[in-house]
Amino acid sequence: MNVAIEPGRSTLVLVDFQQRLLPAIHRGIEVVAEAARLADCARALGVRVVGTEQNPRGLGPNAEAISDRCDRLVSKMHFNACEDGLVQWLRAPGHPAPTDVVVAGCETHVCMMQTAHGLQRAGFHVWIAANACGSRFPDDHDLAMARLRQSGAVLASVETIVFEWLRSCEHPRFRQVLEILKAPRG
């Protein structure tokens, strides 16, 4: 099991933070705020950010707080974004292919979990930003987190992931990232 995230070989995947879905997500406002903080820190550290949108014609676009922070959006019809080109994009020429993929998203027990499992099958080390994931019902979220842990994904908080990317208070972007983390949430 990979116990240390590789900051120079990471990508952040934000799964289906769609405007029409978010009002039904338990703690939806907090989940989006955590995902946005994670994306802001990732971008400050040079980590690519990709978002996915499930059936955007039917469910609409991602919330602006998410789509504005993504380097790329992958539209998909499968619940597992890997079946709609996510892996090919991650391994596209021009960028080093990540070894570690941090995943956050909605709904935890459907698209987010199936995408995380697809990434594992493709050979990536998968990290789940647990407090930046949500489902309509807390039990579905909790059961998905347990299943992800059983499958070998590493569950962590947004701040845990960010501080592992930083590794040291001597990181040249430490103060910038710390300001993002300390900013009022919401």
Structurally, how many domains make up the residues?
1
Strand composition percent: 15-25%
Radius of gyration: 15 Å
CATH uppermost class: Alpha Beta
Query: Can you tell me the overall shape?
Result: globular
Helix/strand-derived category reads alpha/beta
Spans of at least 5 consecutive residues whose pLDDT stays below 50 are none
Would you give the CATH topology?
Answer: Rossmann fold
Q: What is the annotated CATH architecture?
A: 3-Layer(aba) Sandwich
Total count of strands: 6
Which series of helices and strands comes N to C? Answer: EHEHHEHEHEHEHH
Name a few traits of the molecule.
globular; 186 residues; 8 helices; 6 strands
Secondary structure: elements and pairs:
Layout: E1 10-15, H1 28-44, E2 48-54, H2 56-59, H3 64-67, E3 72-76, H4 86-90, E4 100-106, H5 108-121, E5 125-134, H6 138-150, E6 154-156, H7 158-166, H8 174-182
Parallel strand pairs: 1-2, 1-4, 2-3, 4-5, 5-6
Helix pairs in contact: 1-7, 1-8, 5-6
